[in-house]
């Protein structure tokens, strides 16, 4: 598998749809050719202290202004 896109998300709480960050890399011929990382305003918009402080360090202040995840589909088509 030399050509693929790997996507990773972080969540703000126990709800799987509460994505607060998304990252991706595009690999062509075994080499990373593109990188993408963006903070996202989660829905539902509350943070579990354990997740934010112990797992990934993303907190409410960091995601006050970023857009909701709906825009990501548009970013993927570019």
Give a description of the structure.
There is one protein chain. With 78 residues, the protein is α+β, with helices and mostly antiparallel strands. It has helices spanning 49-56, 72-76; strands spanning 4-11, 19-28, 31-39. The protein has a 3-stranded antiparallel sheet with strand order 1-2-3, with no helix packed on it. A hairpin with a 7-residue loop joins strand 1 and strand 2 (19-28). The longest helix is centred in the C-terminal third of the chain and has 8 residues, at 49-56. It is elongated and about 40 Å long. The model has no long low-confidence stretch (mean pLDDT 81).
Radius of gyration: 14 Å
Structural class: alpha+beta
Instruction: Specify the overall morphology.
Output: elongated
Strand order of the largest sheet: 1-2-3
**Helix and strand element order:** EEEHH
**Model regions low in confidence, pLDDT < 50 over at least 5 residues:** none
Summarize model confidence as the mean pLDDT.
81
Percent of residues in helices: 10-25%
The number of strands is: 3
- Oligomeric organization of the protein chains: single chain
Strand content: 25-35%
Sheet having the most strands: 3 strands, antiparallel
Defining traits:
78 residues, alpha+beta, 17% helix, elongated
Compact description:
The protein has 78 residues and is an alpha+beta fold.
Topology:
Blueprint: E1 4-11, E2 19-28, E3 31-39, H1 49-56, H2 72-76
Antiparallel strand pairs: 1-2, 2-3
């Amino acid at each position: 598998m030399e050509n693929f896109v790997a996507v990773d998300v972080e969540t703000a709480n126990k709800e799987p749809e509460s994505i607060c960050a998304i990252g991706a890399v595009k690999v062509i011929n075994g080499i990373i050719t593109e990188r993408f990382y963006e903070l996202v305003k989660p829905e539902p918009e509350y943070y579990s202290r354990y997740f934010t402080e112990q797992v990934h360090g993303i907190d409410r202040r960091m995601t006050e202004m970023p857009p909701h995840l709906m825009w990501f589909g548009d970013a993927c088509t570019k």
